[in-house]
Structure formats: C-alpha cells, structure tokens
Amino acid sequence: MALLEIRDLKKYFSTPRGMLHAVDEVNLDIEEGTTLGVVGESGCGKSTLGRTVIRLLEPTSGTVMFDGKDITSVTKRQFHALSTQMQMIFQDPYASLDPRMSVAELIAEPIKVHKLTRNRAEISERVRDLMDTVGLARRLERSYPHELDGGRRQRIGIARALALNPKFIVCDEPVSALDVSIQAQILNLLQDLQQEKKLTYMFITHNLSVVRHISNEICVMYLGRVVEKCEAKELFVHPYHPYTKALLSAIPIPNIHIEQKPIPMTGELTSPINPPNACRFAPRCPYATEQCRSSEPALEEMTPGHVVLCHRAKELNDL
Amino acid sequence: MGNNTAVEVKNLIVHYETEEGIVEAVNNVSFSIEKGEVMGLVGETGAGKTTIALSIMGLLPHPPAKMYSGEIYLDGEDLTKKSLKEMQKIRGKKASMVFQDPMTALNPVIKVGDQITEVIKLHDPSLSDAEAQKKAIDMLEMVGIKGDRFEEYPHQFSGGMKQRVIIAIALACQPELIIADEPTTALDVTIQAQVMEMMKSLQHELNTAMLLITHDFGIVANICQKCAVIYAGEIVESGTVAHIFDNPMHPYTKGLFGSIPSLDKDVERLTPIKGQVVDPTDLPEYCSFYNRCDYCTEKCKECDPKLVEVEPGHFVKCIHVMQGAEEG
C-alpha cells in the first residue's frame, strides 16, 4: 500500500468570473520512502496540489488517504494530531520565517505548538539536534533570519519541517530561490535525510533538471491536470505528451555541442476558469484535431507505469 | 582598442560604503565585447554582476557606491568622464538595459506604445509624433507583438509579452550595446525559450553587442560567444564558450558545473561547492575563493593570483594555474 493515495482530488476557487479549476481530478500514489516530482509552469496548479494534499487548503472534492486514513474526512481537531506526520518546506526562505524570531525559537516553534514537550531543556536539546541534522552551526542559535543567507535560511525551514518527525514532506520549490552551488548542498541534504529517516517527498518545482535528479517518479501538470506521469528517467527518454515534449525542448542545456531547437508553442492559453470540455492543451498543441477540441481525453497507460492524457498519444508515438 | 570593439571596461573597482563597512563589490574587472558579440557574465548572488552593469550605464547609486578606478569605453569615448546630462543622451541611445523583472520595469499607468515612443522621441526630437508612433509600432511588431496592442496597458500583457515590450524599448534606438540583466529569470521555461530565441535573432540582425548577465550556464551555451565567470567581484575565468565549457580550469567554474543536475547523465550525488560565499566586506588579501576551494594549499595564502592567459583568449585566476604556466 502506498503511503499517500490521492483520489479524484479537486480544488476549485470561486472567482467573480466563475470557478477556477486549480486542481482537477488528480490521482496519484506515493510509495513510502520515495519522491514524487511535480513539474509544470506557473499557474498549472502544482502548489495548490501540494497544499491541498496536506490540507492547508480544503479540497473541493476527492480523498487523500495517508497511511490508510482519509485525512479529508477527519475533523480539524483530529487532523491537528495527524498533521505532525505531514509537513511542508516552503519556497521562499526570506518570506516564510518570522523575522522577529531567533533561529532557536523558529525551530522550537513546531515543538511548542504541538506540545511534544514542555520541558525547556528537552526543547533546546531537540533544537540543537535538529540544527546538527540540517548542518546549521550551533553558534547561530541566537541569530535572526536577516543575518543569514538564503541557504542557511532554507536549512531552518527544513529543520522546522523535521521537528515533528514527519513521514511525509511537501517540498514546494525548496531550492528555486537559491544559487546553484547552495542549491546542490540543499538537494544533497534532502536526499541524505530521506535515506536516513525513510522520508517520503512530494517535490514541486519548475526546474526539470532538479526534478530528474531527485525524483523516483515525475508527474507533469498543465492547467490543473496531470498530463503525464512515469518513472523519472523514462520521462526524459520517452516523453509522450506534446506538452512534455515542448517543455523538455525549452530547457537550455549547458553544453555548447548540442544544438537546441525549442518546439515553438503558439496560441492562447486556455483559461482555467470554467474550462471547456476539451483538451486543455489543444489551443497550443501542433497536433490538435477536432476531437481534441470537442472532448477531454482520459489518462491512458502507454507502457507499464507510464500514463498520458492525450487523445493522440498512441498514434503520435507509434505505440 | 580595436576598431571592432563595442565596449571595453578597464580596471573597474566599485565599492559601497555602508554603515557595516566597505562592501568591495567589484575588484579590478576588465573585459571587452566586440560588435555583434554576446558575452555572458556568470556568477552567484552578490558576485558583483549587476554592479558592473550599473557602472557601465552610469546608474550606480552615489552614495553609497563609489567608483575608485575604471575606464569604460563605448564607441571610443570614456563614459566615466561624462556628465550626468551627457549620460542621459547615451542611455537608451547608445547603451540600453533590459532588467530582470518585467513586472516592475514598465510604468503601469502609461500605455505600452507611449512607453516605447518616449525613448524614440527623447533621443530624436526632430521626429513628429506620428513618425515616432509609427516607429514604435514597428518595434512592437519586431518583437512579435501585434501593432494594434499599442494602446494597451502593461497589465493586459503576460510576463513574456512585457519582457518583449522592454526589449522593444531597449532596441528602439538601435544601441551599440545592450545589457541584459537576467532577462528571463522571472519567466517560465517555454516563455524563456521564446524570448531567448527572439533576442538571439534580433541581436544578430542588428549586429548589437550584448552583455548577458545570468546564473544559468544553459543560457550561456545557447546564445553567447564569450563568457566570464565572476566570484566576489573578480573575474576568475574568462574565454570563449569553448574554453569555459570544454576546458574549465578554475576550481570555482568546475564547482559550478558540478552543482548543476544533469538532464542526461545519472549522478547519485551532486558535488556542491562547500561553504558560503565570502563576505564582501571582509575579503582576504589572497585568493578570495580559498575557503571554499577543494584544491587550496598553503601557497594560496601567500599572494593574490593574477589572471593568466593559459591559451589564447582563455584567462584563469588561480595560483596553481599561474605556477603551472610559469613552469611551462
């Protein structure tokens, strides 16, 4: 059984112009100790998905089974206890930390909120352990976030997420605000922690090379829908969805001997507000037909474990 | 300075004098860009990339910034000797800049067409309103936006479209030099690809020199002919893209490449550069990369190495490379 089972999850937002379909009928499983990468461009619903999965946002419909329990149907009070198991690392280490709390206070906060212990000595010991775990020097205990650089701040964010010994962590663009050399340090830390503590990650990012590096499985989102999902390396060898192909072709590769030809995408973006019954990528898709514009495709398995949301995937990829 | 040189920066030193101390932002940087050439300037946050750009444009904030030395030649003239008034005539006309964040670089209450017309009129007052407007519409179409959107406001444009408008403004007077400071960092990859393709072809068409500031080696590989890697306000390695990508020699350049996850090779663990960026208010007398370098020895603390030409056009600032060169 997977640690996390997401079934028909929907999150709609009511706007003056209609319902905005931020996450639409998403089905995903994440096995314990593995990482599911979620990629897509701004506005595709990846962050909303991450937040809905750990109930920072209430889902419109659908279920999320965590460790066999349906977290969407429990009361707020029951969920509070469960939430120690599921934590989040936020994107912006500059905005997600209270500037008036010291490093030690920031890391102690989750322990106090969840009343794991009231003993001050125990708390400060736990804080020091956590600082060691994430590689923060103990002398920084009394420092404030503004005195630290982005990499160290993100380490505080990670320590806060780890403070409650969670099983599952949603990492929402945890390295996007960091310089490459620091980014690599944080990615290595996240991988080490996963091995050590058998953590399960949902790793949300727009950076395709990062997601390939860290994930076991990857799902690609486009306007609220999962359009392709498969084993991480497979996605880069055999992308089947036209959107995935365009996305991959657009990444600038740091190699001067490869000539890069991004697949041009023209056409207007479909509005996520009251989307029509059609493939949401059709207006920008070079292969769209009448069928694509008049009915929405269903996820279909191309090869074992590799699902694609496209009417023409089989035909276009000779499968 | 060769006939074909568009811009040449010599011995640029810029410090910021703040209450916490003197931030040594740019320390003796020299480079030149030929006409029609694109040079990438790669480095991390705080390396001094943007300070170099602002120095060329004469936009350094005084105080706290202070230029201690440096000559900046554009079209044979030293910009550091120009008055504020003279610089106003040069900015937008001979040298223009594309900023990182398209969301804040445009004025939200002025129609995009008028924002393009403004530059054209400012630098060529002899043009009539109608002529300037026609030229502005041509510019819009050149960056792939329909001319009938001339009357629209910035909020009606997407991020990628806004960046196109900014590029249209930058190119409106056909400058000799464009400085693009992380022009696509705020954009999604597919939009980034479109904007980069467009910049590449326009730059080629107009034979403009371009200084492209970025932290992404992928973009450098895609568009630049030359590349300089900057660390703590110093160029630590520079050369053609072939030098930098096929034969990186400075430990910092190698470290940056080791930090990027690959799209086609399987690497279990990345090899990041250890430690944090050196404090620019407290730079050592010796190599400023010393505390993060995997190859550092006692010798590295003896002196500050010089940029050495290891092969024609390929410069490296590292004592090991310097000694290797001396020993032949």
The CATH superfamily of one domain in chain A bears the name P-loop containing nucleotide triphosphate hydrolases
What general form of chain A does the structure show? globular
Helical region count of chain B? Answer: 11
How confident is the prediction overall: mean pLDDT of chain B?
A: 89
Total number of strands of chain A: 12
Number of helices of chain A: 11
What string, H for helix and E for strand, traces the elements of chain A in order?
Answer: EEEHEEHEHHHEHEHEEHHHEEH
Rg calc of chain B: 21 Å
CATH fold-level topology of one domain in chain A: Rossmann fold
Largest interface: A-B, 40 and 43 residues
Unreliable residue stretches of chain B: none
* Alpha carbon gap, first and last residue of chain A: 30 Å
Which class of one domain in chain A in CATH terms?
Answer: Alpha Beta
Q: Which word captures the global form of chain B?
A: globular
Q: Largest sheet of chain A, if any? A: 8 strands, mixed
Radius of gyration of chain A: 21 Å
Describe this structure as you would to a colleague:
The complex is a heterodimer of chains A (319) and B (328). The model of chain A has no long low-confidence stretch (mean pLDDT 92). Chain A has 319 residues and is an alpha/beta fold. Chain A has helices spanning 46-53, 76-82, 103-113, 120-134, 150-162, 180-197, 208-214, 232-237, 242-250, 290-294, 313-316; strands spanning 4-15, 18-30, 35-39, 61-66, 69-70, 86-89, 168-172, 200-205, 217-222, 225-231, 300-303, 306-308. Chain B has a domain at 253-328. Helix content of chain B is 33%, strand content 24%. Chain B contains eleven helices and twelve strands. Chain B has helices at 49-57, 84-90, 102-105, 112-123, 129-142, 159-171, 189-206, 217-223, 241-246, 251-259, 319-326; strands at 5-18, 21-34, 38-42, 65-74, 77-78, 95-98, 177-181, 209-214, 226-231, 234-240, 308-311, 314-316. Chain B has an eight-stranded mixed β-sheet, with helices on both faces. In chain B, strands 2-1-4-5 form a four-stranded antiparallel β-sheet, covered by helices on one side. Chain B is globular, with a radius of gyration of 21 Å.
